Amino acid sequence: MSSIPALLRDRIAATPDAEAYRVPSGGDWESISWREVGERVRGLALGLAKLGAGPGKRVSILCSTRLEWILTDLAVLATGAATTTIYPSNTAAESAFVITDSGSTIVIAENDDQVAKIRSVQKELPGVTHVVVIDGSPSDDGWVVTLDALPAEEGDYDAMVDAIAEDDLATLIYTSGTTGRPKGVELTHDNWLYVAEAVRRLDLISPTDLHFLWLPLSHSFGKLLEVVMIDIGVPTAIDGRLDKIAENLGVVKPTFMGAAPRIFEKIHNTVAATVQREGGLKLKIFNWARATGIRVSRARQRGAAIPLTTRLEYALADRLVFAKLRDRFGGRIRFFVSGAAPLSMEMAEFFDGAGLPILEGYGLTESSAGNFFNLPDSMKFGTVGPPLPGTEVRTAGDGEVLIRGRGIMRGYHNLPEETAGALQDGWLHTGDIGEVDEAGRLRITDRKKELIKTSGGKYVAPTYLEARIKAACPYLSHVFVHGDRRNFVTALVTLDMDVARPWAQAEGLPEDPRELSGHPRVREEVQKAIDQVNAGEASYATVKKFAILADDFAVETGELTASLKIKRKAVEERYGETLDSFYAG
After folding, report:
1. Taking phi first (over 0 means left), then psi (-120 to 50 degrees means alpha), and beta for anything else, what does residue 145 get?
2. Which domain holds residue 229?
3. Over 70: is that where the pLDDT of 23 sits?
4. Residue 296: is it exposed, middle or buried by C-beta count within 10 angstroms (0-12/13-18/19+)?
């Protein structure tokens, strides 16, 4: 097997009538078989080829997570072209950069709004011959055509697929740019096939599972899941609407789902804030159940026997609290998968104790998203597990994690110097600091470029503190720890109004974010959380001052990447005056 389209063809031949995808349709969900997927991909591929897609070409996809993203991606690949991914939240200027830098000649856009975005920068896109819109209208000048109206061409689809080599470019994914200008990561068909093979060898999932997908397919984590499900034949329910995740889980009843840590934090904080607001006996039962679940989880981590009394207590806690929580997610979740950012110990223990284990993994866009993974029977909190079969790992003298294997990128698009810096003797320099334990499991401690070095010469890991503070206060959305070359550490925090507003209403506090963020009661709650975290840290790593911001960080305002990671430079620039005020005098 030499390509992703060949992988799809094998899947169709093996299980043509099995469910491939499930999509929302008129208040219900509609299934599509692998045979139907193949027919639709074949038609789209021949139509795109007629428009000029083919070997050596690039086609950009500007669309949210939905079935058509996957179908058009597979069709682009079947022509021999490569897919360039663009986040739907990207601005017109950002989209124009990706399109021109990648050399895309066709853009597939989700709707008329995204077409308008591209149309506004059309003069900067002389190489784009067509925009194909999924839900929208064609243009009079013929530049915009609809997906349904792609030319119904006859052609030798199998010959196109057979001509694709494993080393051909499959995907150009632009890094999210937390520290600088995005770079196009070149990933081949073999990069993705390796990850699929490695996950299959773990024997973790099967066609009897049901996968729920909401992650951005323009991100490498989402793309990994797309390819893995084709390889193993796992049906996938797709809906990229973030505000529908909880509702969809209850209806679809999947057995597993991938997410960024922020999603798990939001679930935890919503539950915790709800019981705190109700107070009384419910709060006491919840706190007791959580403590019992964490006690059992920690015993499992140590490999220790669980006393009979604890098992009986846990059975009661499960009946009173945890079973109800699992039912909110459909009652069939075997595990969650967490990636894209570190998962805090507090979140890992809480969900594991509730019977909803989160398997944390690790990878970069530059390594096809998946290189390390915790397995259910051997997971170790605080680590991202051992390397996948075929991946090698070592650490440099400064603790930087280096990895090597078939999943490593071909290079950065048109950036030979940056490629040479990242790839040395076949080893990818990840930019992450970590260590490998005696069982071969990797522990990531922080980003090399994000470690804070105080003016006293002490190193502080900001993401570690940020995760702990968020876990200690359910009303927080984001925490930004600051202090590089300063004499002490400070923080900016934002409120999660979905959680904070009901609490404020119950407490008789202002519900407006600007008023609430400045209220003494809110500051008291945040201070308690910071004091709790500070108590376990060395003096130089404690947060001495903080500010509660009226506005949350967001992708749209530039403080977050599309995968919900903080853009540290953007936050420092926007809130520089506030940060400087912490150190005045």
Report:
1. beta
2. 4-240
3. yes
4. buried
